[in-house]
Amino acid sequence: MKKIETIIRKSRFADVKKALHDVEVNFFSYWDVTGVGNEKVGHVYRGVTYSTADIQRRFLSIVVSEPFVEKTINAILESAYTGEVGDGKIFVLPVEEAYRIRTKETGKTSLN
């Protein structure tokens, strides 16, 4: 099992969510986060410069069994992509064990 953590643009969340459902990843957690990125230039709107140093993003935490790792990553890569600075990051971490509290199932069966 692997835990896939990804930070994406909030504006791409609906597309990423649909792409994950399309590859049968139907459970994940997410929350809004603020981070600091590499973008150094502010945006100018009506003559006023706004800082883009603090960036609003969405963080997703997904745990999948081995057969779903590659297709989950590909779904995120394709659906979160805009080609602009700040599209996000994906991190993959090992998961030693998972438990479903209600049924006390363990391992990959607890993910279904």
Helix content: 10-25%
CATH fold-type name: Alpha-Beta Plaits
Broad structural category:
alpha+beta
Total helix count?
A: 2
Q: What is the ordering of alpha helices and beta strands?
A: EHEEEEHE
User: What portion of residues belong to β-strands?
Assistant: 35-45%
Please tell me the overall pLDDT: 90
Number of strands: 6
- Estimate nothing, just give the exact number of structural domains: 1
Shape: elongated
- Uncertain stretches: none
Give the termini distance in whole angstroms: 12 Å
Instruction: Give the strand order of the largest sheet, numbering strands 1, 2, ... along the chain.
Output: 2-5-1-6
Largest sheet at a glance? 4 strands, antiparallel
CATH architecture assignment name? 2-Layer Sandwich
Radius of gyration: 17 Å
The first-level CATH class name: Alpha Beta
Structural summary, described in words:
The model has no long low-confidence stretch (mean pLDDT 90). The protein is an alpha+beta fold and 112 residues long. The protein is 22% helix and 36% strand. The radius of gyration is 17 Å and the shape is elongated. The protein has helices at 13-22, 66-80; strands at residues 2-9, 29-36, 43-45, 48-50, 54-64, 88-94. A four-stranded antiparallel beta sheet has the order 2-5-1-6, covered by helices on one side.
